[in-house]
């Protein structure tokens, strides 16, 4: 197991440790719970979109840098590298678009009714 995966697991475990048990022990109130759920779903959608866009941009930057380096090393394989680069960029961008779609669904439709 690599250090990176151990660190990621430890970080996720620490994040779960801060979720208060009181949150799950409360009885839902009819009027105020709906407003709270909508508010937190909007906040969550915003953070998810920010993370997806930021990490997608970092991934695209690394992909373009690697493709430029590969083309500089082997100019004869420019067409193959360009095709693989475009496919990779499309797949990275599609993940960000999926998060945008889910965020827009949470913004405009209340799925918790």
Describe what you observe in this structure.
With 113 residues, the protein is an all-alpha fold. It has a domain of 77 residues: F1FO ATP Synthase. It contains four helices and no strands. The longest helix is centred in the middle third of the chain and has 44 residues. The protein is flat, with a radius of gyration of 21 Å. The termini are far apart.
Annotate the secondary structure layout.
Layout: H1 3-17, H2 22-25, H3 30-73, H4 78-108
Helix pairs in contact: 3-4
Biggest beta sheet summary: none
Kindly name the structural category: mainly alpha
Number of strands: 0
Percentage of β-strand residues: under 5%
Give a quick rundown of the structure.
The protein has 113 residues and is mostly helical. The chain is built from four helices and no strands.
């Amino acid at each position: 197991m690599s250090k990176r995966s151990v660190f990621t697991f430890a970080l996720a475990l620490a994040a779960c440790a801060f979720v208060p048990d009181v949150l799950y022990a409360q009885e839902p109130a009819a009027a105020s719970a709906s407003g709270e759920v909508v508010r937190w779903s909007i906040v969550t959608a915003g953070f998810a979109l920010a993370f997806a866009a930021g990490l997608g941009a970092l991934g695209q930057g690394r992909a373009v840098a690697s493709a430029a380096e590969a083309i500089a090393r082997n100019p004869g394989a420019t067409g193959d590298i360009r095709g693989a680069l475009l496919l990779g960029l499309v797949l990275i961008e599609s993940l960000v678009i999926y998060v945008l779609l889910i965020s827009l669904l949470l913004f405009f439709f209340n799925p918790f009714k």
